[in-house]
Every structure is written in C-alpha cells, then in structure tokens.
Amino acid sequence: MMTKKRILFMLIPLLVLAVLFGILVFIISIPGNVYTNTSEISDIIGSLQPRVIKLENITIKAQPDSTSCAITTVTVASNYFNNANYEVSDLIEKYLSSKGSSSGGDMEEWLQQEMPERTILFKSGVTTGEMIGDIHASLNNDNPVVIIFGAPNPYNEPYYDFHASVVYGINLDSETITIANSYGYSEEITLVDFLNKMSYTETNKYPFFQKISVKFFQPKNAYYLIT
User: How many domains does the chain have?
Assistant: First the structure.
C-alpha cells in the first residue's frame, strides 16, 4: 500500500502540469494588440491618395480542399501578373503532383517561379501604419498584395484558420479592403476586421492548438509585396 507521502509525491507533477496548463490557457486567451479605434485608423489613412483603388482582371479561384489556400493564392497572383488563365489544378500539377498533396510547399518560392522577373518581398511584424501604407502603395502601382491572415474556415466551422488570399482593392473613405478569398469568392471587409484578422486578435475563434501558434509563433501582419 502506498503511503500518503508517496501519493503526494506522485501528485505534485500532476499539480504542476495543471497549473502550467491553466497559465497557458490564460495567456492565449489574452487578445493581441491591434488598432481598432476608428480615430486611430483615420489618422493612419488620412493623408493617403487616391482614396479608392480597385484592380481589374483579378480571377477568383476556389481552393479544392482545406489545405490548398497557398497554391490557390499563387494561381490568382500568377493569372494577374502573367495575364494568364491557369486553374488551381494546373499549379498543383506543376508544383505538388510529386508530393501527392495539394499543400506542403513554399508559397514564396512558387510566387518567384511564376514571376521570375519580379521581386517578391515578404514582410511581417510591421506596424499597422506601415502595412496599410504598403498595401495602398502596391495597389496604386497596379500590384495586388498576397496576405496571410485569419479567416473563417468552411472546412472546420465555426473556427478560424490561417489562410492565404489576395488583396486587390482598398477604399479609404468607407474604410474597407477588397479580398480575392481563396475559398472562392470576393469579399469586402472593414479595415477594423482586416486588422483583427491580420494580427489574429480574436484568439477565441481558433482551435486550441492554433491558439498556441497564434500567441507564440504565427507571424502577425504578414504579407508579400510583388513589384
């Protein structure tokens, strides 16, 4: 029969793990930092001109499964910059057929291979003002922007997931962003919603283990500029 001392000795590690787990849950429940105050957004966008930009000739493509947003996003970008009409299946065949999967590659590498004459610049962890300025300047130069953000996942409702898509419009007067969403539709969302999704502020909308990634690993305000 085990003594009380031995039972206590066995329980201590479990109690420590329980405390650590509780601390982790508390940490990941704390929202991230993002500009959500309308006056702050107005200060950021106040001097930018032109006020409304929306690119033409953006093809909306739908990812064929839950894991293929990156290759779908590259397809949309490639169609625009190369004046092409690829299907997502074409690029899956080109880059991923040997893997037997529609995911698991390097989006930056694919973008560079599809547009070898262009410069692909990845940025993350920048301020809200810098990100909005970059997106506005890129669109003003007729270049859409590839983003990585949080979005509702139709394959795992009601949760959000990390997601790649293409920004092709901005309206500073109505404070909205237009996105070619890789789930297969165009959407116009408010700047506040966009900033929340880019910085993964709403951690309660993600599955538990993704909450950990959001809090500690996933780059915030992450996007690719193509010039």
Answer: 2
